[in-house]
Design goal:
two-stranded antiparallel sheet; RutC-like_sf; alpha+beta; five-stranded mixed sheet; 60s Ribosomal Protein L30, Chain: A; single chain; globular; 27% strand; YjgF/YER057c/UK114
Length: 129
């Protein structure tokens, strides 16, 4: 069983995530590459929210291929190009998380491989037997 670690004496997390997450021995591990907000038809939404939805949907498909779901996510790392995009990204991300909450990092970066990309997301998941 995964266990959320949020010790006394450490500031409460800023959002829906855990400071630490214990994964017991024997768990299967899946690490995704960063997923960009581009659809299989090469469509790129103009909004962070639209791109984040594509990122998380792609990750959901990757997880499913490994017989996992977002319930197995232990770490989510998001990258956006503007601080102002945090709320839109978080709104989408929060639809995909469940307890125990995964650890999470959100970074502002100067850009991605193409100027129209606004967000990238990667996930680490562990399937506990």
């Amino acid at each position: 069983m995964k266990k959320s670690i949020n010790p006394t004496g450490v500031r409460k997390p800023f959002g829906n995530y855990s400071h630490g997450l214990y994964v017991p021995p024997g768990a299967g591990l899946l690490v995704t590459s960063g997923q960009l907000g581009i659809g299989p038809d090469e469509t790129i939404p103009r909004s962070v929210k639209g791109q984040a939805e594509l990122c998380f949907e792609a990750i959901a498909k990757i997880l499913a291929e490994a017989d996992m779901s977002f319930e197995d996510a232990i770490r989510i790392t998001g990258y956006v190009t503007m601080r102002e995009d945090f709320p839109a990204y978080m709104e989408v991300r929060d639809r995909y998380i469940s307890d125990p909450k995964p650890v999470s990092t959100l970074l502002v970066v100067s850009g991605f491989t193409r100027a129209e990309f606004l967000v990238e997301v990667e996930v680490t998941a562990a399937k506990v037997p």
